[in-house]
Amino acid sequence: KEVAAWQKSRNNKNAKVNWQFTAEKARIKLSRLYPTLES
């Protein structure tokens, strides 16, 4: 039960945070390699 609860809370909270964090990091790295459409 503890493992299931831990997995559920981890998936609900940390998964979103980690995805946003990695996406932001990827955006910064890609912006250096490729010119943005806005500029």
Care to describe what's here?
There is one protein chain. Helices cover 82% and strands 0% of the residues. By secondary structure, it is mainly α. It has one domain. The longest helix has 32 residues. It is rod-shaped and about 50 Å long. The N and C termini lie far apart (51 Å). The mean pLDDT is 72.
Secondary structure layout plus pairing:
Blueprint: H1 2-33
Radius of gyration: 16 Å
Low-confidence stretches: none
Give the helix tally. 1
Q: What is the averaged pLDDT score?
A: 72
Number of DSSP E strands: 0
Distance between the termini: 51 Å
Count of separate structural domains: 1
Q: Profile the largest sheet.
A: none
Q: What fraction strand?
A: under 5%
What is the N-to-C succession of helices and strands?
Answer: H
Structural class: mainly alpha
Helix content: over 70%
Instruction: Based on Cα principal axes, name the global outline.
Output: rod-shaped
Short descriptors:
82% helix, 39 residues, rod-shaped, 0% strand, mainly alpha
What's a quick, concise take on this entry?
The chain is built from one helix and no strands.
